[in-house]
Amino acid sequence: MITAVDTNILLDVFGADPKFVEVSSSGLRRCRQEGSLVALDVVWAEAAAVFGDSQQFLDEMEGLSIAFSSTTRTAALRAAEFWRRYRAAGGSRVRIAADFLVGAHALVAADRLLTRDRGFYRRYFAGLRVLDPSASLKP
Q1: Would you say residue 97 lies in a domain?
Q2: CB atoms inside a 10 Å sphere around CB 104
Q3: Which helix (H) or strand (E) holds 130?
């Protein structure tokens, strides 16, 4: 089982978000026990930005057993397709290509996506299995 990891999960863990650190850490542990973890190149870039030192980030990712995964041509084209549909349906945000890349990558290269942004991914990526570790916190 391959689980793609979204940026928000990593930021919860690295930043020790008081509300989400425990559930996001638990979600990572569960997914790691069930298979391998990967993060798309854009997720690496977004998460690494919170570290002052690239080596510290690399050490943390290795400690979490999260492998680097590049965007494939297929995933990039799927992301473009989904983004076009979003814009054609009246979507007004013009700078969310990274989210579409993350979703398309998970759809093409993984079995599921670990994220707290489940509404977006469920809405735009039918068929993508989305795991939200924070669902247990919602009333």
Answers
A1: no
A2: 26
A3: strand 130-131
DSSP structural state of residue 34: T
d(CA 112, CA 130): 6
Cα–Cα dist 68/51, whole Å: 17
- Tokens representing residue 119 in the block: 């509404």
pTM of the model: 0.87
Structure tokens at 51: 């570290």
Range of the domain at 51: 2-70+110-137
Q: Which pair of tokens denotes residue 113?
A: 């996506």
pLDDT digits over 105-132, tens only? 999 999 999 999 878 888 888 889 999 9
Domain containing residue 30: CATH number: 3.40.50.1010
Render pLDDT for 51-87 as a digit per residue (tens, 0 to 9). 989 999 999 999 999 999 998 899 888 888 888 888 8
- How long is the chain? 139
H or E segment to which residue 100 belongs: helix 97-109
What residues contact residue 81 under an 8 Å CB cut-off, 6+ apart? Answer: none
The count of structural domains within the chain is: 1
